[in-house]
């Protein structure tokens, strides 16, 4: 088994790399990957069959295709398969090998279109913005959203309103908010009369009329996605997104965690069963049924352990 360590080809650094009229990308072997490409070529020549097991997303599919082209696998004349797995463990890898198929050209084209769009916007629009500024496929619409939000903030007209909260000590510290709905006009969202609010706030004796006992459930937090991982690392440790992903990548490379670049909270069924078995053996309580989290529509649904 040999690793490509990510992309081995890309558009040239000092040229746009895609020109009209056909807009065909002009790929180059990355300088830092030249030696690795030679090693992979030698390994491919010695293999009876070749399985490309890159990440199960557009980028991973593109990497598999670049390997196929750069290593000359078509000319090599040996069987080449695309193995897709959602988790990294012996059972999942073996299943992926058994069900391996061809490279998905549609995913490759999707990644290529995105990469070309990045390059065209970055190289053609950024120079028009002035020194130190840049445009991009993501940052340009993000800037638009920020501008629209800032305009909404500036157009907002503040309304002075009043709330009253009673803080009580018995039987244990608790608080109660004044519900002014019975005195408000129709569709009145806030109490605007300061005098009435101050009068309510001077009430020193309260009587509890009814008590409605209820049960509440506290659900566990969902497993990290890339976004929530970065948010938690920033809030708890002050890490930048770049540092968070570097640390996560190092854990991934040492086998301490599996896939960490995902927008899905899905966990491996095997991992869930292993965790439940470990807790049970340790005498710890476990839920009667494992909690399942739904991924967002079109999420990169990856099982992790």
Helical content stands at: 40-55%
Low-confidence parts: none
| Spatial gap, N to C terminus | 21 Å
CATH top level assignment of the domain at 9-124: Alpha Beta
Radius of gyration: 29 Å
The name CATH uses for the topology of the domain at 9-124 is Rossmann fold
- Beta-strand level of the residues, as a percent range? 5-15%
Task: Walk me through this protein's architecture.
With 305 residues, the protein is mainly α. The chain has a domain at 9-124: 3-Layer(aba) Sandwich (Rossmann fold). β5 and β6 (174-177) form a beta hairpin. α2 (58-70) packs across α5 (105-124). The chain has helices at 34-46, 58-70, 73-76, 90-98, 105-124, 139-155, 194-201, 226-237, 241-253, 269-281; strands at 9-10, 28-29, 50-52, 80-82, 165-168, 174-177. It has a two-stranded antiparallel ribbon with strand order 1-2. Strands 3-4 form a two-stranded parallel ribbon. The chain is flat, with a radius of gyration of 29 Å. The two termini are 21 Å apart.
């Amino acid at each position: 088994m040999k690793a490509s360590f990510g992309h081995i080809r890309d558009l040239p650094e000092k040229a746009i790399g895609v020109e009209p009229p056909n807009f065909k990308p002009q790929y180059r072997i990355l300088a830092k990957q030249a030696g690795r490409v030679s090693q992979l070529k030698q390994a491919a020549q010695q293999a009876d069959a070749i399985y490309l097991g890159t990440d199960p997303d557009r980028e991973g599919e593109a990497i598999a295709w670049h390997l196929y082209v750069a290593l000359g696998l078509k000319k090599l004349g040996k069987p080449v398969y695309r193995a897709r797995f959602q988790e990294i463990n012996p059972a999942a890898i073996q299943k992926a090998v058994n069900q391996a198929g061809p490279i998905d050209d549609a995913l490759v084209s999707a990644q290529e279109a995105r990469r070309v769009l990045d390059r065209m916007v970055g190289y053609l629009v950024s120079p028009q913005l002035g020194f130190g500024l840049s445009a991009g496929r993501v940052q340009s619409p993000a800037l638009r959203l920020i501008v629209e939000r800032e305009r909404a903030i500036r157009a907002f007209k503040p309304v002075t309103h009043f709330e009253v909260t009673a803080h009580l000590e018995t039987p244990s510290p608790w608080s109660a908010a004044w519900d002014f709905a019975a005195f408000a006009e129709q569709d009145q969202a806030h109490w605007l009369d300061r005098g009435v609010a101050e009068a309510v706030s001077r009430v020193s004796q309260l009587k509890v009329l009814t008590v409605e006992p209820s049960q509440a459930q506290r659900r566990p937090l969902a497993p990290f996605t890339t976004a929530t991982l970065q948010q938690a690392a920033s809030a708890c440790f002050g890490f930048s997104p770049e540092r968070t992903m570097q640390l996560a990548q190092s854990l991934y490379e040492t086998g301490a965690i599996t896939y960490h670049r995902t927008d899905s909270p899905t966990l491996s069924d095997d991992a869930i069963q292993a965790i439940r078995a470990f807790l049970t053996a340790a005498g710890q309580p476990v839920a009667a049924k494992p909690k399942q989290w739904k991924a967002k529509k079109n999420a990169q649904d990856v099982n992790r352990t």
